[in-house]
Amino acid sequence: MIANKSKAENNIDTYLQGRAIQIAQFEDDEIVPTPQFHYILPGERIVSDLSNTSKVRTVKIFDPQLSITGLVVKFNAPVYQIADGRKKYEISSFKGRVEDILSDGSIELANEDIVSPSRGDREPLGNNLIKITRVSIAQIDEFSSLPYQTKKIDDPTLDKGKTKIQTPGRNGKKQLSYSIRREDGVEISRVLVKTSVIDQPIDEVIKIGTKPVITGWCKYNDDVIAASIKNNLDPDKLCALMKKESNGHPDSVNPDGPYIGLFQYTEGFWADATKKAGFAGANIYDAKSQIYVTAWALTHGYAGRW
Length: 306
Known about the structure:
The protein is an alpha+beta fold.
């Protein structure tokens, strides 16, 4: 104000300033900034821009050609510093709420974006700073392998010690869907929201041979194998015992017993064993009978007899 004014003049100035604010037509949601006053003396040329814009509102009270004095009041919109993600700039606005200030500056916000102060606040941070954190949420899909399992099954038709792949294994595939949250382009979180099996794995099936196999010396191999299978016996044990007792001769006789045949039976033990093994009445010199009866005897508690 001009110095050395009277009390009456000061009252007039106060009235004029209040009137200027009223004429400027500030809305309820707008901020009334501290005005700038310019008193116009008679004959003084007005050089100020009297047009209203989004950044400046100017009010002229009294025409200096018709009054002793006049008043030009200028309202400059507050300037806000915007930190928008990795960008920084300024906007001017008379709006009071943060959300309206940004809208006045044609700044678009996504629903997920974070604004500090919050959108409904009327108090920006110190130095009129408004910070915008740009948030993006996207779903990405990743794929990973589903390993197959290996199953083993016994195969009595396959020689013991051998294996055979019946069904080749094949890995499956699964899809992992993640929700990715990024703030200003930096990944903040990754949440697994869904797992889907795209391709089921196929289990590998391997046959394991369980058929008895003769690996050393032997005679009457077919009968030895058959008797060993029937009595769950290692055929090599039967062959080794045959070699030890008779060297594979079914008519072998040891007069000390006498002991007779492939596995050197006494007649008494032969009669008892054949009856229990299901070969009652079998000829003691019959090689096949001796093989089957001996296979039974070895697996039914008579192994100590040899």
